[in-house]
Amino acid sequence: MGNQIQIKNIFPTPIGIIKVPPYFSNIIPILEKFEHNDSEEQRSLIGTRSTNSYVLNDINLKPFKKFILQQSLDYGKHINVSCSKYKITQSWITYKSPNESHAPHTHPNSIISGIFYWGKTDENTPPITFHKPIVTNTWEIQPSFLNMVSFYELNVIPGNIILFPSFLPHSVRPNNTSLIRKSLSFNIVPKKGFGDEEYSTELKFN
Predict the structure, then answer these.
(1) What sign does the dihedral 77-87-94-27 (CA atoms) show?
(2) Helix (H) or strand (E) holding 80
(3) Contact between 113 and 164 (Cβ < 8 Å)
(4) In Å, what is the CA distance from 152 to each residue of 93, 106, 110, 132, 148?
(5) Distance (Å, whole) CA 130 – CA 106
(6) Looking at residue 158, what DSSP letter applies?
(7) Are 71 and 54 in contact (CB under 8 A)?
(8) Which 8-state DSSP code applies to residue 54?
(9) What gap in Å lies between CA 38 and CA 205, rounded to an integer?
């Protein structure tokens, strides 16, 4: 026999999955009260989005916001972000009604992004689809090949938070159920900045 090829999967992208404690169920009525932009153009792109894009600044959501930031500190260690304190920049709610979807996108100007799910779901509720970033500066990979190997889906589980690097493309395929897919999204950055002054890599946010 000839030599057998050895395969190593390198540079994995850590995704954080957190089950929210049951005592936070009291935030659901608060999230449900936010008004949404339901213009036809908005719905065709992402479904409906809360008109308030700083949802987690609501005083009634302060304990939940604190919980998210605590979880982000632990998650940051897995993506090699050296930071002692984070802050949430924007946070917003999106609803995907039947037939609504969200094209692949990233979250610029952020380090960590996250999603919290709630509401009713079934086995056909569209998952979040993460897409592998592809660099094609040396040769071109055909889209048919990419579609086979370059995505990973995580099912929507109400009561879960998903944390991921903000550079990671993600999407939601059309909602083929009679239920509304409900989620709270947020972006996170180091509170004071990051990098190192000595090595000229420092970026301050204050």
Answers:
(1) positive
(2) none
(3) yes
(4) 23, 15, 22, 8, 10
(5) 10
(6) T
(7) no
(8) B
(9) 33
**CA gap 31, 55 in Å, rounded:** 8
Instruction: Determine contact, residues 110/187, Cβ cutoff 8 Å.
Output: yes
| Distance separating the N- and C-terminal Cα atoms of the chain | 63
Q: How far apart are CA 53 and CA 34, in angstroms?
A: 10
Phi/psi of residue 64, each to 5°?
A: -70, -40
> How far is it, in rounded angstroms, from Cα 107 to Cα 25?
27
Q: What single-letter DSSP state applies at residue 3?
A: P
Domains delineated in the chain: 16-192 (2.60.120.620)
Q: How far apart are CA 167 and CA 105, in angstroms?
A: 9
Residue-wise pLDDT for 78-129, tens only, equals: 888 777 889 999 999 999 999 999 999 999 999 999 999 999 999 999 999 9
- Mean pLDDT over 159-164 rounds to 97
